[in-house]
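To close the chapter, one final illustration. This time we ask the reader to focus less on the individual chains and more on the assembly as a whole: which components sit near each other, and how the overall shape emerges from the parts.
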Amino acid sequence: MGLDPSLLLDTFGVMAFRLDDDLRVREAQGTQGPPFMGEDIRETMPVLYGLEDALAAPDVDLAMPFIQTGRDNDEPMALRVRRDPATGDLWVLCRDVSEESAIHRELVQKHNSLSLAQAALVKARDAAQEADRTKTAFLANVSHELRTPLHVIIGGAAILSRTGAKRLTPDEVPGYADDIHESGVLLLQLVDDLIDLSRSETGDLTIYEEPCDLRAIVSGIVSLSRELPEARGTRIAATLPDGPVPMLADARRIKQVLLNLLSNAVKAVAGRTDAAILFEIDPDGPVLTVSDNGPGMTAAELEIARKPFGQPRAAVRAKGAGLGLAIVHRLVDLHGGRVEIETAPNEGLTARIVFAAPSRPPVPTG
Amino acid sequence: MSAKTYKIVVLGDFGVGKTSLIRRYVLDEFSEVYRATIGVHLYKHTDALAATALPVNLVVWDIEGAPLPSEQTRRYIVGASGALIVGDATRADPFSAMWEAADMFEDVLPGRPLCLALNKSDLGTEAHPETVNRMTRRYDCPAFGTSALTGDGVTPAFRALARSILSLGL
Ligand SMILES: Nc1nc2c(ncn2[C@@H]2O[C@H](COP(=O)(O)OP(=O)(O)OP(=O)(O)O)[C@@H](O)[C@H]2O)c(=O)[nH]1
Ligand SMILES: [Mg+2]
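The assembled structure is written out below.
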């Protein structure tokens, strides 16, 4: 029986290497290529790095199917490391397993791709259901918000048009007229916000950037806020740089952002004896900050507040529309900036608007 | 004398982006096409951890993913100096498979460093800070938000692992 072992090795596509204690190749069968005689086998089979202790064991028996050693090598091998029981020599045996691996690959690929696709579908379905729920809640909230001022208007108009004995005295009229006017302004604001929101949803909300002075915008809003009847009793302060803070922005939209933040802050601090709101500009960035010392929010409440009409608390909810923060986010997005909100229960709330840095050089005017 | 070469294994569920992270780190490339890894794929990489430090030689083992690591995975782990445990942050539950993999690694090689990667951060992932904190405390390891697509966090995650390995003198 003189079957040449190399014939066997060739037939099954096997390579065999006998190693010395330094893991250098002392004998190679079934191969003409690397690793060559005397070479450290780990250099051509990096799979053996880290296994030095295991390889030194007298009873080493390592088996690894489907090893691909190179980064783009798609010819998997099965590897086996054993000692020859008779001589104690360490042998590394490699077998080409491209065929088995191809079948295995097809199975795994199909299984994994299917599972991933299924998971993606489930996720998409959940997202759609969630969007549906949000839309329904949104509609319910919109209706509610519209009804309140409408009731004031309708009721007020009915009272104003009374005749006969129930007719209002001339000094009662302005009070009702004011209520109607105030509700009308509120409604208009609400409808404007709704239009902005729906435009931003369809990608039709646009801004017109021009060179402007952030400092001037903020100080304008600060003066205005001190006139607001709702803000009576609130200390409104501003820390502004001495000189102008030039930037490219849609000034009208930045004012809208500020008014929304102001309105939220005013509602948050209402009723406090030490109510305070602070506006700050850091010209580097630039960064605009509006902070209040109101009750703050938990992370979960903030999550709700970011959504259109998401008032976190019934107490806040009663005080008006909750489109503000959603619109602030979208308008700042359009300016290439971002909104960072820092808040915690009893810690107040700080909204930081970080405009695209570095501030884009304004187009020279004139 | 050549410097020591360290074996790093990358573990996690299938499709979370193990191959993508490694290929971003080693080859600086990315593919949108999912090609499942079969068995193990090896990548040799030499990385300078800092401008002044000596480069460190790594063999990164890209291991076939599964929600539950198999007995085969256990054999692949043997001899590793550290593990990168990868989860897909966009999934409803990125963590179960990460706990499983981390537990197996710790079981095979107690005391060896781990690093966590919450991958696909580019897809605007939901944050799960509490669970991440719990894992980093449990395994005393760092965690990174990563994106193989943009490259964010990828090299820092691998380097953090390599640094832990060097500092333990493994
Ligand atoms: N958007 C995005 N996609 C990614 C990212 N990383 C991976 N992917 C995609 O996710 C899919 C799976 O990525 P792989 O790297 O093959 O995942 P794996 O963990 O190696 O999977 P197995 O080999 O089966 O265990 C591929 O389609 C990738 O393009 C990422 O950071 N962002
Ligand atoms: Mg893979």
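The beta strands of chain B are 5-12, 40-48, 55-63, 82-88, 114-119, 143-145. The interface with chain A takes residues 5-7, 14-15, 26-27, 34-36, 38-44, 59, 64-65, 72, 75-76, 78-81, 90-92 of chain B (CB under 8 Å). With these observations in hand, you are ready for the problems at the end of the chapter.
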